[in-house]
Design a protein that fits this description.
This protein has 181 residues and is mainly alpha-helical. The chain has eight helices and two strands, in the order H-H-H-H-H-H-E-E-H-H.
Amino acid sequence: MRIFLAFLAFCAFSAKAVGASDINTLYQIDQKTRSAWKEGQAYDRRSEAVSDARLRARLFEITAESLSWTATEFAQAATILQHSNGINAGQNEPPRSQDNHIFAYFLARRAYRLGHKDGAWLMTVCLDRWLQVSGIDRELGVWIDSRDGKARVVLKLPQISDAERFAAGLPFAVAESLVHE
């Protein structure tokens, strides 16, 4: 549980600039659980799985924010990844293949922030597919609000906090991911 809380504290500054120290922090959190296991100490496998999913999501976000691609390249990469298997893929689907949808979400967010015409749509599709494959209520995702003539990505249910979204199984702070939109 301490590892999980440490990771939540790390996520609190996820919107800030990233660097090698951020990667090292993720690594240290990851290794803390593995060290306990190697030393024969008891640890909570469920908490570890949740923490691992959040570590991967944060790593995807850092990676997407660190790349110096064009808006089109981000959109193309997001499109490829969001076509990952998962929906109706059958019983042999690798459990982490849906991580491609999370990585695609962060790539699509970069395309959107850089002004790509399909960036907002890709963000919504990538997160929606992840929610669907994960069996999580799709209403916890995002949609495009274009009532004022400008497409903006917004929460479907803004009254639900990121803490509640975490509790439902989302591996990153969706509302926080939209801060710069």
